[in-house]
Amino acid sequence: MMESGGGGRRTKVLVHLPSGQAVTSYAALERILFGLGWERYYGEPELLQFHKRSSIDLISLPLDFQRFSSVYMYDIVVKNPNLFHVRDEYIH
Q1: What is the pLDDT of residue 10?
Q2: Cα separation of 61 and 73, whole Å?
Q3: What is the b/e burial string over 40-70, where b = at least 16 CB atoms within 10 angstroms of the residue's CB?
């Protein structure tokens, strides 16, 4: 997280575009991904992973949501075009 000019902190947030809702937990993200045809993949026990049968794409996330950084968010955006967006959010 970076300091902004207003004295608050700036962080990245993954937004589900159709609903306009920020993803604030893995439970919320999992519900959205399941609705888009993603399924849980259990290849690596230290990761939370999802795959689609219709593609070779694999989403791999750290088990701890606190470590869900913009790198993982952009991976989700690329693998789900026009459905997610990463935006800056300021915390005062």
Answers
A1: 84
A2: 9
A3: eeeeeeeebbbbbeeeeebbebeeeeeebee
List phi, psi (to 5°) of 31: -60, -45
| pLDDT recorded at residue 78 | 97
Query: Are the C-beta atoms of 15 and 84 separated by less than 8 Å?
Result: yes
In whole numbers, what is the pLDDT of the chain averaged over residues?
A: 91
Read off the tokens for 16: 């589900």
What is residue 64's three-state secondary structure?
A: coil
Q: Which residues of the chain have pLDDT under 50?
A: 1-4
**Predicted model pTM:** 0.85
Structure tokens at 12: 């990245």
Q: What is the C-alpha end-to-end distance of the chain, expressed in Å? A: 13
The C-alpha angle with vertex 78 and arms to 74 and 83, in degrees rounded to 5, equals 95
